[in-house]
C-alpha cells in the first residue's frame, strides 16, 4: 500500500511548507496539504499539524483552531490509528482539542524564545522515534512564546509511568534538570504521546534540522521513524 | 467654507502658503476641505520627498541585473535561473517613539506588504535599531517594546528575522530609529507592479476594514517630535499580523494565478497615496466611491476615510471578468474584498459618495508634480574642529585586558542575543547562516545559490564625516556580504536625518548622498530603492545622520558559504587588509572620552572592491574555514566573536608598526579576520599574492579556550575565553531588564 501523508493548514500556519519540504527531502514521498475548512479527509497514514500562529494565536494558542471543521477528521484518524504529529502550534492545537493531555502556557521567561536547544530522547519504542537511540541527545531549534508544558500532578505521573514523555529538554551531555527547560516546562517535557501511542506533540522543530544544508540533521529521524513503523504494516512511501 | 477658514486649514494640513498658492494655480479654483487634505498629505515630505528628490537623482540605480529600480514598492535584482530578489528597507521612527510595540510591529507589517505586493514571497526580515543610552526606564521600555513588536509581527507572519543591528547613543535619546528591511523571492516572469491600467477595470480594497487609526501618520512623520507627543498616539497604527498573513496568502494566490492587473499596499496616507500613485504610474485615472469602503465604525468623515492608515489593506486592480475568481480566493482565506471604484481613461483622481462628487484632482499633481525644493545647506561650524581633534592614544593605554572587558560589556559591542532570540530566525527552512555573524545567508529556493543579506551603518562616522561615513557604511555592508562568500549586488537604503529645513542637516544629507553614490558606483552595487526619513529631531536637536545601508549579495553555490566563526584547532589565522593608527569615531575613543571626534578611518574604495572580490573567490575555491569583518571594537572584538561560537581559543603573535591599542581596537576599514586550514595554507597564500593584498599572519586557532595575544614581542592578552564570553553575552540582558 502507498503511504499517504497530509499536512493540515490552518489560517496562520507557517511551517506547513517547511514540513512538506522536509518530509519529501527525507522520505522521498509526497505530502498533500489539507485546508482546515475540509470536513472530510481521506484515510491518511500520517497527519502533520505544523507550527505557526493558527488564528493569530488570538485568545490562546490553538484555542480557536480546535474548532476548525478538519479537527473532527483529525480525531477520527487518530482513533483509527494513523500517526498524528503536532509540532509547536500543532502540539498546542492537539492539547486544546483533547487529543493530548496537558496544556502549553506562556514561557516562564515571558518572552518568545528562538534558539537551538538540546533534547533527550526518552522513549524509542514510539512509532515516531524508532530510529533514535534511548537517551540520544538532539540539537534542535525551538521557536515559541507558549511552550511551557503543564499538567496536573497525577497526569504528569501517569505520563512518566507509561513512558509517554518522549522528549525532555536537557543540556548537551543529556543531563535533565529543572534548569534545562528553556520555557519552564514541568518535568522538562518537550514532547508527549497520546494514550494510544500514535499521537505525538513536540515543541521543537524537526523540519528545520532535516537537511545538512540547514546546519543539522538531528530532526530527520522523526520522519524516517514514521516511515519505518508504517513499513512494518506493509505501507510504503 | 469661507476663504478665511480655508486658509487656516492649509497650515493644519502641513502646507505652506507658497504650496497653497501652487495648489490654487493647479486647480484653477479653491480646493474644498477634502481636496486640501489630499494635497496636504501627498505633498508631505513623507509621501513626495520634496526636499530629497533633487539629491536622490545623484544615486546610481542601473545595472544589467536590476529588474526594478526606485519608484516602485520595492527594488528587484535578477539573480539568475528565473529568480528575482525583491528587497526594501523603511523607517517607522516616530510611531515607535510614541508607541514602541505597535510602531515597530506596523513598521514590519508595512515593509512585508511592499514585498508581497510585487508578487514575491517574503523570505527574511532584518531590523536596524537605534536608541538612547540603555539606562532608565524610558529607553529600556522602548527597547523592550520595539523588539517585542518586531518579533510579534514577523514571528506570526512566519518570516524569519535573520539579522540587523542595535545601537545605543545619546544622539537618539529623544528620537529612536526603527528601520525594517524585508527580502523576498519572485519568479522573474511574474513580477507585479502598482499600476492602475485598463479603463473599466475594477479597483478592489482587500483586507481589513478602514478605521480611524493612523490618520495623518504621514504628516506626523514629517514634523519633529516634542514633549507633547503622547497626544499623538492616535497617529500610530495598530497591527494585526494574523490578518496580514491572510492578506499575504490571498494576494500571492491571486497573483500566482495572474488574476490582477496591478497591486499596491496601503501604507502612509492610506487610500489617498495608493490610489493616486497607482493611477499616476498607470497614466490613467481612478474613481472611488467612499460609500463602498467597509468601515470599522460608522460616521467616518470623507477625509478620515482617505487618510486612514489602518493596516493590512491592499488595493488591487482587476478585470471585471476575473472578479469572481478573485472573490473565491479571498473567501477561502476569509479576507474581505470589496470593489470600491474603477479605473478611468482621464487622468483624474475622483472621489464620490454615490452620485455626489466630493473631489476631482489630476492625479499627477498629487504625485510626480508635487513640489520639489533644493533647500539651502551650510557646513556645521563643529565639523572642522571635531575632525581635527586629537584622538591619539599611543602610549596612553596601560590595561589592555581591562579595556577589552569594558568594551565587551558595553551595549554596542555586547552580544545582541537578547534581541535576536526573540525573533524566529529559522522558519521557512532557508536560513543557512543565522544572525550571530556578519551577513545572514539564505538558500534561494529552486536553485543551488545562496543570498547574503545585511544592513549596516556606523553613524558615529557619518556624524563626523557624512561623505566618508556613508561610504564606509556601504563598504562595511559589502564586506559583511563578501566575508560569507557572496558577491555584493545591490543596495536599498534608509536615510534617517533631522529636519531638511535646517541647512546644517541638509548639508549632512547632501554629503551623505554623495558618499553613498560614489561608494555604490565604485563597488558596483546600484541602489534599487529606499526611504528617506527626515525630521528625526527632539526639541530641535537632530539625531546623528544615519544612512542605513541594506545590501544583498549572491553566491553561486550555497554550500560554499563561509561562517564567521573559527572551526578547528590548528587553523591559521590571518588578518587580510592593513591596520592603521586610527581612533577617530571609534568605540574605544567613546569609551575613554565619552565623545565622538577625530578623523574617521581612511577608506580606499578600490581596495575595498578588491578585498570583496578576493573573499568571494576564496570562498568559491574553499580556501577559508571562517571569515569575519573587523569593525566596531576592532580586531580584538572580531577575535572574540569568531572564537565565541565553538568556544575555541586563539594563540596569536605578530608584529607591526602601530601601537598595541590601535592593533587591537582601531577600526580601520576593509579588514577581514579569516582562518585557513593547514592543508589549504599554501594555496591561500599564493592567492593572496596574486591579489597583491596586504595581510598579516596572526597565529593559530587553539583548543585550550584561551585568548592569547603577543604583539611586537610583548604579551597583550592571556585570558580565559569563558570569562570574556560571560561578559559579552550577559551584558545586554542585564541592562535591558525593566
Structural notes for this entry:
The complex is a heterodimer of chains A (237) and B (738). Chain A has helices at 16-27, 70-80, 89-96, 153-161, 220-231, and strands at residues 5-9, 31-35, 46-49, 83-87, 103-105, 113-121, 137-144, 148-150, 165-170, 189-193, 199-202. Chain A has 237 residues and is an alpha/beta fold. Chain A has a single domain (5-231), classed as Rossmann fold, CATH 3.40.50.880. In chain A, the strands form 2 sheets. Chain A has a 9-stranded mixed sheet with strand order 2-1-3-4-11-10-9-6-7, with helices on both faces. In chain A, strands 5-8 form a two-stranded antiparallel ribbon. Helix content of chain B is 36%, strand content 24%. Chains A and B meet through helix 1 and strand 6 of A and helix 8 and helix 10 of B.
Task: Give a nutshell description of this structure.
The complex is a heterodimer of chains A (237) and B (738). Chain A has 237 residues and is α/β, with parallel strands linked by helices. Chain A has helices at residues 16-27, 70-80, 89-96, 153-161, 220-231, and strands at residues 5-9, 31-35, 46-49, 83-87, 103-105, 113-121, 137-144, 148-150, 165-170, 189-193, 199-202.
Amino acid at each position: 500500500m502507498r503511504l499517504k501523508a497530509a499536512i493540515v493548514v490552518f489560517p496562520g500556519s507557517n511551517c506547513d511548507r517547511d514540513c512538506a519540504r522536509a518530509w519529501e527531502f527525507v522520505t522521498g514521498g509526497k505530502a498533500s496539504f489539507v485546508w482546515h475548512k475540509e470536513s472530510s479527509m481521506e484515510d491518511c497514514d500520517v497527519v502533520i499539524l505544523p507550527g505557526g500562529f493558527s488564528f493569530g494565536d488570538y485568545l490562546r494558542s490553538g484555542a480557536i483552531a480546535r474548532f476548525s471543521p478538519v479537527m473532527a477528521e483529525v480525531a477520527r484518524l487518530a482513533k483509527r490509528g494513523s500517526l498524528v504529529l503536532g509540532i509547536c502550534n500543532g502540539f498546542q492545537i492537539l492539547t486544546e482539542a483533547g487529543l493530548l493531555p496537558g496544556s502549553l502556557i506562556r514561557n516562564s521567561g515571558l518572552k518568545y524564545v528562538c534558539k537551538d536547544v538540546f533534547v533527550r530522547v526518552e522513549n524509542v519504542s514510539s512509532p515516531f522515534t524508532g530510529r533514535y537511540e534511548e537517551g540520544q541527545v538532539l540539537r534542535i531549534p525551538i521557536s515559541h512564546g507558549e511552550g511551557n508544558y503543564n499538567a496536573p500532578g497525577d497526569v504528569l505521573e501517569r505520563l512518566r509511568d507509561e513512558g509517554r514523555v518522549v522528549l525532555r529538554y536537557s543540556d548537551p551531555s543529556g543531563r535533565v534538570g529543572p534548569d534545562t527547560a528553556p520555557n519552564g516546562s514541568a518535568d522538562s517535557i518537550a514532547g508527549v504521546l497520546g494514550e494510544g501511542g500514535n499521537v505525538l506533540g513536540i515543541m521543537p522543530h524537526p523540519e528545520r534540522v532535516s537537511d545538512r544544508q540547514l546546519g543539522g540533521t538531528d530532526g530527520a529521524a522523526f520522519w524516517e521513524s514514521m516511515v519505518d513503523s508504517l513499513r512494518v504494516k506493509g505501507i510504503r512511501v | 467654507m469661507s476663504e478665511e477658514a480655508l486658509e487656516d486649514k492649509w497650515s493644519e494640513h502641513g502646507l505652506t502658503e507658497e504650496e497653497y498658492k501652487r495648489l490654487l494655480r493647479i486647480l484653477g479654483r479653491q480646493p474644498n476641505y477634502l481636496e486640501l487634505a489630499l494635497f496636504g498629505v501627498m505633498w508631505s515630505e513623507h509621501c513626495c520627498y520634496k526636499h530629497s528628490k533633487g539629491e536622490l537623482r545623484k544615486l546610481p540605480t542601473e545595472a544589467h541585473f536590476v529588474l526594478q529600480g526606485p519608484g516602485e514598492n520595492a527594488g528587484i535584482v535578477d539573480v539568475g535561473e528565473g529568480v528575482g530578489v525583491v528587497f526594501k528597507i523603511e523607517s517607522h521612527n516616530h510611531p515607535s517613539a510614541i508607541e514602541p510595540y505597535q510602531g515597530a510591529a506596523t513598521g514590519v507589517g508595512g515593509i512585508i506588504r511592499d514585498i508581497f505586493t510585487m508578487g514575491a514571497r517574503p523570505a527574511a526580515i532584518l531590523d536596524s535599531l537605534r536608541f538612547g543610552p540603555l539606562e532608565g526606564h524610558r529607553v529600556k521600555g522602548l527597547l523592550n517594546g520595539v523588539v517585542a513588536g518586531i518579533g510579534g509581527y514577523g514571528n506570526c507572519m512566519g518570516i524569519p528575522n535573520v539579522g540587523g543591528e542595535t545601537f545605543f547613543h545619546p544622539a537618539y535619546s529623544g528620537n529612536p530609529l526603527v528601520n525594517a528591511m524585508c527580502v523576498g523571492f519572485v519568479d522573474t516572469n511574474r513580477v507585479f507592479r502598482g499600476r492602475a491600467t485598463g479603463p473599466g477595470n475594477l479597483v478592489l480594497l482587500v483586507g481589513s476594514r478602514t478605521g480611524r487609526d493612523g490618520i495623518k501618520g504621514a504628516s506626523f512623520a514629517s514634523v519633529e517630535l516634542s514633549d507633547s507627543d503622547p497626544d499623538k498616539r492616535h497617529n500610530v497604527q495598530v497591527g494585526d499580523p494574523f490578518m496580514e498573513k491572510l492578506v499575504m496568502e490571498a494576494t500571492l494566490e491571486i497573483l500566482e494565478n495572474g488574476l490582477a492587473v496591478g497591486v499596491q499596499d496601503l501604507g502612509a496616507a492610506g487610500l489617498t497615496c495608493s490610489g493616486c500613485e497607482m493611477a499616476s504610474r498607470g497614466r490613467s485615472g481612478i474613481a472611488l466611491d467612499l460609500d463602498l469602503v467597509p468601515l470599522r465604525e460608522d460616521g467616518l468623515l470623507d477625509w478620515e476615510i482617505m487618510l486612514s492608515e489602518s493596516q493590512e489593506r491592499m488595493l488591487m486592480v482587476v478585470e471585471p471578468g476575473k472578479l469572481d475568481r478573485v472573490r473565491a480566493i479571498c473567501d477561502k482565506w476569509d479576507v474581505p474584498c470589496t470593489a470600491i471604484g474603477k479605473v478611468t481613461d482621464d487622468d483624474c483622481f475622483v472621489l464620490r459618495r454615490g452620485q455626489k462628487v466630493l473631489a476631482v484632482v489630476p492625479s499627477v499633481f498629487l504625485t510626480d508634480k508635487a513640489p520639489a525644493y533644493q533647500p539651502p545647506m551650510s557646513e556645521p561650524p563643529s565639523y572642522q574642529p571635531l575632525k581635527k581633534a586629537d584622538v591619539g592614544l599611543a602610549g596612553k593605554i596601560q590595561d589592555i585586558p581591562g579595556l577589552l572587558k569594558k568594551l565587551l560589556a558595553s551595549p554596542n559591542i555586547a552580544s545582541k542575543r537578547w534581541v535576536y532570540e526573540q525573533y524566529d530566525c529559522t522558519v521557512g527552512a532557508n536560513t543557512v547562516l543565522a544572525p550571530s555573524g556578519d551577513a545572514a545567508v539564505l538558500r534561494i529556493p529552486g536553485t543551488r545559490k545562496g543570498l547574503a543579506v545585511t544592513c549596516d551603518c556606523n553613524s558615529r562616522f557619518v556624524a563626523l564625516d557624512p561623505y566618508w561615513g556613508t561610504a564606509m557604511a556601504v563598504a562595511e555592508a559589502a564586506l559583511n556580504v563578501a566575508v560569507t562568500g557572496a558577491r555584493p549586488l545591490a543596495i536599498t537604503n534608509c536615510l534617517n536625518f533631522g529636519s531638511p529645513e535646517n541647512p546644517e542637516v541638509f548639508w549632512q544629507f547632501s554629503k551623505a548622498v554623495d558618499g553613498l553614490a560614489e561608494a555604490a558606483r565604485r563597488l558596483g552595487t546600484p541602489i534599487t530603492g529606499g526611504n528617506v526619513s527626515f525630521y528625526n529631531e527632539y526639541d530641535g536637536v537632530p539625531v546623528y545622520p544615519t544612512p542605513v545601508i541594506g545590501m544583498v549579495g549572491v553566491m553561486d553555490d550555497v554550500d560554499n558559504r563561509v561562517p564567521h566563526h573559527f572551526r578547528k584547532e590548528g587553523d591559521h589565522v590571518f588578518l587580510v587588509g592593513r591596520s592603521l593608527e586610527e581612533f577617530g569615531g571609534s568605540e574605544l575613543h567613546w569609551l575613554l572620552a565619552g565623545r565622538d571626534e577625530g578623523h574617521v578611518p581612511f577608506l580606499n574604495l578600490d581596495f575595498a572592491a578588491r578585498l570583496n572580490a578576493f573573499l568571494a573567490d576564496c570562498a568559491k575555491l574553499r580556501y577559508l574555514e571562517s571569515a569575519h569583518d573587523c569593525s566596531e571594537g576592532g580586531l580584538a572584538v572580531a577575535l572574540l566573536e569568531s572564537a565565541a561560537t565553538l568556544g575555541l581559543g586563539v594563540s596569536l603573535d605578530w608584529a607591526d608598526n602601530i601601537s598595541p591599542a590601535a592593533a587591537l581596537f582601531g577600526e580601520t576599514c576593509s579588514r577581514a579576520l579569516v582562518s585557513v586550514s593547514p592543508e589549504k595554507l599554501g594555496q591561500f597564500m599564493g592567492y593572496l599574492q596574486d591579489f597583491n593584498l596586504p595581510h598579516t599572519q596572526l597565529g593559530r586557532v587553539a583548543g585550550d579556550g584561551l585568548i592569547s595575544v603577543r604583539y611586537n614581542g610583548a604579551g597583550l592578552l592571556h585570558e580565559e575565553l569563558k570569562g570574556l564570553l560571560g561578559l559579552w553575552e550577559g551584558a545586554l540582558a542585564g541592562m535591558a531588564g525593566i
